[in-house]
Amino acid sequence: ARGCVSSSSTSTFYMHMDQTPNSALDVIVVGAGFAGLCALIRLRQRGLSVLALEAASDVGGTWFFNCYPGAQCDAASIDYSFSFDATLDREWEWSERFARQPELLRYLRHVAERHDVRRYIRFNTRVVAASWNEGASEWIVGTHRVLDPEVEAIHAARNDVTVMESAESILRARFIVFATGSHSLPKPVDVPGAASFLGTSLRTSCWPRGEAGQGSFRGRRIAVIGTGS
Questions:
Q1: Does an H or E element contain 37, and which?
Q2: Alpha-carbon span 130 to 1, nearest angstrom
Q3: How far apart are CA 189 and CA 209, in angstroms?
Q4: CA distance 204 to 186
Q5: In angstroms, how far apart are the furthest CA atoms of the chain?
Q6: Are 175 and 50 in contact (CB under 8 A)?
Q7: 154 with 206: CB under 8 angstroms?
Q8: Is-contact 10 166, C-beta < 8 A?
Q9: Scanning 17, 81, 174, 205, which has the fewest C-beta atoms within 10 Å of its C-beta?
Q10: Nearest to residue 183, comparing CAs of 69, 61, 99, 74?
Q11: At residue 131, what are phi and psi to the nearest 5 degrees?
Q12: 153 or 22: which leads in pLDDT
């Protein structure tokens, strides 16, 4: 969070279906990956008004952005299953002991559809500021629309001022759950000459979707920086 956001600095005021102009949500959940989706579902099951804010265009979190060829979990697939839904646990069968990224993403999409929570998620939305209002005992949360999640993730990692601009939307809530995980921002490349490299440069943490990310690498000279999973 950076600074304090007030309604006077915004150009647009979005209202969630659970929120009237003078009311605050019970909870705002930041992120719609495994943790965020679980929090959203469980909190709504308790009768609370909840809105999830997600910078990407879909659920998935890490498993939405990390879609590079060969991406796969290094823990047993069953460990990713939500235990609070016994029926879901019975109807979903993992195809591998260590699921690959496409299957993990399919699972999260299935969970979102099964529990009908997509309408409580605001996609392409990044939280740019949050401030605690002591007098009202509530959080003031500023957001702005994300046009290109992959590009903006890189700027956010660099604390680029174009991302930390004034909020376009203001929301209020009694509680905030930051389900942003430990891998939500790419690590900036601090390698001499990287900025002037004229070839194709890709990041596993925000791999391009479509043809750009699935093209053939046959016959190309490729350098891989980093030896993580």
A1: helix 34-45
A2: 5
A3: 20
A4: 9
A5: 64
A6: no
A7: yes
A8: yes
A9: 17
A10: 61
A11: -140, 135
A12: 153
